[in-house]
Amino acid sequence: MLRRSSITSFCSQFLKSSYSHNLNYARSSSSLSSSSNPHLITSSATALDFSSKATTDFVSLTRHYGRCYWELSKARLSMLVVATSGTGFVLGSGSAVDFSALSWTCLGTMMVAASANSLNQVFEINNDAKMKRTSRRPLPSGRITKPHAIGWASSVGLAGTALLATQTNMLAAGLAASNLVLYAFVYTPLKQIHHVNTWVGAVVGAIPPLLGWAAASNDISLNAMILPAALYFWQLPHFMALAYMCRSDYAAGGFKMYSLADASGRRTALVALRNSIYLIPLGFLAYDWGVTSEWFCLESTVLTLAISAAAFSFYRDRTREKARRMFHASLLYLPVFMTGLLIHRRSDSEQLLEDNAKGFVKSASSGEALELDDNDDNQNIKAKKRQARPPVAYASVAPFPFLPAPSY
Ligand SMILES: CC(C)=CCC/C(C)=C/CC/C(C)=C/COP(=O)(O)OP(=O)(O)O
């Protein structure tokens, strides 16, 4: 992070060196005509000086404010938010992913998340100034003024919402705008009032995948809830670990975190453990609700047992080291969980195939027609439907019609 003084000295060094370079260049390039027209030389050197100063000023200002906007937006956190929204979009995409709409969704989410994060910092200048972790942010360190930050937050937030409304749909834009309000105007002040803030923050973190799903399908259904639920439960061990590790910092900043009223850390660790365990059914629900294949149950369970083990270890031995381990386990959990969801995602056509395969088995067991519906005009799908029947399904048709049809 560049401080104001270092930026000033960097700029003046840069300006000095580029001035002398340009002056030398001006002198040498005009040396041929120097004897004939000295006025011309002076004025062209001055013009070059002026334009080079303007250019370097522009470059250093762009760099300076670019850096401030990046930090105000908490760009890495916003990119994680975009990843969750993009994953939600793909999961809600049915048979084919519309990559252009996906890009607009990611850009719109990034802009609204950047705005929400900037407003969060506008409201917490004094608190951030008192915390080691945040004191060098652009506002408390004086690198950008409050009105400038508000201007940035408002313009990027409005533009992002308008982008989502025009390029995706009103449902996605509405979710983004409501989430901004929830984060900046409810969660942020609540941090200084009551420890319930962490649970409200978990709702904020859970909305972006729903936004992505809504952008893709203009709808919110039960099976859209897998990733939002995972994000909600996941944030509790994640933030409990963070708030435990940075207890003194949060206390200095005047924030009411759960871990501050829990000297032994036992209740903090229990919250983390409980919410890690709540993640266990999600893999099974993802399969049962037709979002993923059965492989995801296995992967999700292994992953969830790993984070639960880290939470249990923290519960047994409430040290900073164990909290850090749980924090790192949570950092690993989310990208792996989302990758698993994407790899094992079942598109609409795959779901249709499987549903039809189940229908086939059912009718076979009840002694009705064994062939698929003749109205089905897609021969490929028909062929795949036949392949999709698990081998055991054949056991329940003639000559063994008395065997129960297995349900999948
Ligand atoms: C589309 C849209 C509006 C998305 C917003 C998503 C978003 C900003 C999620 C962050 C969730 C969260 C509780 C962060 C912690 O903030 P904090 O204030 O505790 O962090 P800090 O202590 O580092 O400031």
UniProtKB/TrEMBL annotation:
GO BP: any one term: heme A biosynthetic process
Any GO MF annotation of the entry: protoheme IX farnesyltransferase activity
Chief subcellular location: membrane
Listed transmembrane segments: 77-96, 102-123, 144-164, 170-187, 199-216, 222-246, 267-287, 293-315, 327-344
InterPro entries tied to this protein: Protohaem_IX_farnesylTrfase, UbiA_prenyltransferase, UbiA_sf
One Gene Ontology CC term in the entry: mitochondrion
This protein's UniProt keywords: Heme biosynthesis, Membrane, Transferase, Transmembrane, Transmembrane helix
Protein name as it appears in the record: Heme O synthase
Source species: Vigna unguiculata (Cowpea)
